[in-house]
């Protein structure tokens, strides 16, 4: 142990290097360690600094690659000596250390921006408040089945930087959060998709919705007339923003309500995708993913696939057999003719709206967690129509109770997943659905939404 500590101390105190450009990575998680590996490969003297504890699995990688690191605090003098800083998306722009870097004229960028500088691959970038994970996974699945050498990264799986460092993909499908887009300068996807925009993460954006919208639209900020922006033409927020802030890219709209000469739309229960006067059709009843929102996700992914010349038949086969994202409307088990559905990834009201909309049977709804300033009013019509019981799951359930106690007869407060599932089991009747769709973040009782979903699945299996 003593010998290991000496080695660790020597790594932490190693000089950044002479004659090399100095790269500092703020944050020692997935994206930070990926950027560190790419930085070393590209000849930088790399230093990783994390204000919290770096996980052992990442320390092992840094040690193996001979990369200098520190955790549980920042050595400000070393960081302010950087030529370039790559910042974890979880660190807000307004923290004092980041403001000092900007004051000194030291570029602070995202791992997405950094990685994009070292690949000539064709990039499909996908953002949105909801649906981006499913759309990313589906687009990647179609491109891969279509024979392309394609990687999937960003806000899903391995970091983009790690993939660029270790692979030679000709195409990438990237899930991009607003936090990742905040740190771009020159990054541009050849094909951008905005699935939808609804209020989320407003605490990060000064509680101004326009700031959040502008962040999402950064995905198209560097696009040219040779690039494409695929977007939801039913989303008034997106349409209004585009009218006031035109982009250079070619617009490819998709809609459930309107037809287009160029774009994707619904006609007679068939998806029609028309690009360059070439149309393909898909029956909605053959789609593996259920719900109106998933028709839109399918439109977006399929349109992107057509833009990179994937065959129509390949696309049709892929959307018929695709398995959706874990923790997103995931059917877990049917017990005594009651279907249990895990939608733990629904961390905002809009996402839960889609979930409730897609369920066709009387619903026992498990909801709650860390409220991000939620307005539950948009859910009222669906709750009145479908929800027979509400099971609150959170440290503080007052806002949910106040919102729905006069709408639903049964409202129960619980403080553990095991308790919530047991109550649901007692309340649910033959033909019902028990839906975990929290509309809230998970950090009051769980590590993350995956942990919340896993505990839900385990509790069901233990009934």
UniProtKB/TrEMBL annotation:
Catalytic activity: UDP-N-acetyl-alpha-D-muramoyl-L-alanine + D-glutamate + ATP = UDP-N-acetyl-alpha-D-muramoyl-L-alanyl-D-glutamate + ADP + phosphate + H(+)
Gene3D superfamilies in alphabetical order: Mur ligase, C-terminal domain (3.90.190.20), Mur-like, catalytic domain (3.40.1190.10), NAD(P)-binding Rossmann-like Domain (3.40.50.720)
Keyword list, A-Z: ATP-binding, Cell cycle, Cell division, Cell shape, Cell wall biogenesis/degradation, Cytoplasm, Ligase, Nucleotide-binding, Peptidoglycan synthesis
GO terms (BP aspect): cell division; cell wall organization; peptidoglycan biosynthetic process; regulation of cell shape
Enzyme Commission numbers on file: 6.3.2.9
One GO location term (cellular component): cytoplasm
Enzyme class: ligase
Domain Mur ligase central: 126-305
Pathway: Cell wall biogenesis; peptidoglycan biosynthesis
Superkingdom assignment: Bacteria
Compartment list: Cytoplasm
Entry keyword annotation includes Cell division: yes
NCBIfam families xrefs: murD
Family affiliation: Belongs to the MurCDEF family.
PANTHER family assigned to the protein according to its UniProt record, in alphabetical order: UDP-N-ACETYLMURAMOYLALANINE--D-GLUTAMATE LIGASE
Entry function: Cell wall formation. Catalyzes the addition of glutamate to the nucleotide precursor UDP-N-acetylmuramoyl-L-alanine (UMA).
Name by which UniProt lists this protein: UDP-N-acetylmuramoylalanine--D-glutamate ligase
Organism placement in taxonomy: Bacteria, Pseudomonadati, Bacteroidota, Flavobacteriia, Flavobacteriales
Gene: murD
